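Entry 12.
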Amino acid sequence: MGGLVADSYVPDVLQQMNSRLIGEALTEMVQFQKEFKVFSSQHTLETSFKLLNIAPVGDADRRGFFKFLNLLKKTGASVDGKATKLSGHDQIVATLQRNLEGSKPLSVHFTSHPAEQPKGIVKVTAGDHVFNFSSLVFLTISMPMINADRPKAGARKK
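Predicted 3D structure (tokens):
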């Protein structure tokens, strides 16, 4: 999201995503997946998150969030440290679909990392203990974020 969404909305949107895929909400999402195939190759992340009403409140930030999701189509992806052939966008969709349709769905934790580390890669990791106060095991999806202060490509020193 970085420079596409106001800083104050980024943690809020991540929390919206996280709260839909843990506890009772995870059970509900499993049912939504069975009934409506919310996450599948038939739908973009933009469409899925619109359906789930996950987005910033303000119009400009909402547009920025959906632009960010679509930009993930141009990023790479890794699962448990190994590069995949899917784009970041498609890897997130495939990961959520596989998890929600699996026999033992894991809670999902969305987070972020600097886009440069590694460059433009969506990182998926299974089996994380995200919270030190909980024994829950998570599927973590970390999305690359560009620093809002980063100069535009044409303005960078060469």
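Annotation: The first helix runs from residue 10 to 19. The first strand starts at residue 76 and ends at 79.
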